[in-house]
Design brief:
two-stranded antiparallel sheet
């Protein structure tokens, strides 16, 4: 796990707890979860297509079934109980799958007219690859401070069918969904980029983390 997720949350006032993959021990995983005020799902490898009812595409990358199992459990528990959730890149995709949505396994192969999204490796992690258009009135719009914002981009999977109970709140210029939120009042936000890279110098990213942490404090 990249330490930037932990450091970004800590820098914004959270006390992060790293959760091991208790994929065969629900009791321990649940005991850890019950002590949390919010759940941040970080970036990482591809999700197993079986988690959203598909067979592997030839361009599917490395997967981690144990991580899929643990993160989907955490997400579903938090959704059921209204515990704040923030998903970053892969975590954004986990939120969609947890509620019954699906993913493009490879944007270039499956999205006609797609722009490039996989600016990694070979580019700095803070390279601003493209802009996203943000829905006015959304939680993300409040953080972004406007209707467009530049983002970094290090993914080749993306939300395909949006899960029930979620709304898309940002899109890339090719129509790929770049952010999601819950329809209801609870705090659930997912973004397809990596804001943890920018938090120390970018007010928009700071507001995104602050919103999540404020919701977690209210939960606690």
């Amino acid at each position: 796990m990249n330490s930037r997720y932990y450091l970004a949350a800590a820098d914004m006032g959270a006390v992060p707890v790293m959760i091991p993959l208790f994929d065969r021990d629900d009791a321990t995983l649940r005991a850890v979860y019950d002590r949390l005020d919010g759940v941040l799902l970080a970036g990482g490898v591809d999700m197993e297509p079986a988690t959203f009812g598909e067979t592997p595409h030839p361009r599917l990358g490395r997967t981690d079934p144990a991580r899929d199992l643990v993160e989907l459990k955490l997400a579903r528990w938090a959704i059921a109980e209204g515990k704040p959730l923030l998903g970053l890149c892969r975590g954004h995709q986990v939120l969609n799958v947890a509620l019954g949505g699906t993913l493009y396994q490879d944007i270039e192969a499956q999205v006609p007219g797609a722009i490039r999204h996989d600016y990694f490796p070979g580019f700095p992690r803070d390279y601003l690859a493209h802009h996203v258009t943000v829905t006015p009135g959304s939680r993300l719009h409040a953080a972004a401070g406007g209707s467009t914002m530049p983002v970094n981009s290090m993914h080749h999977q993306a939300v395909k069918a949006l899960a029930p109970g979620l709304v898309a709140t940002a899109w890339a210029e090719d129509g790929v969904i770049e952010a999601i939120e819950s329809e209801g009042p609870g705090y659930l936000v997912g973004v397809q980029w990596h804001p943890e890279v920018f938090e120390s110098r970018d007010e928009r990213t700071q507001r995104l983390f602050e919103g999540f942490i404020a919701a977690a404090r209210a939960e606690g």
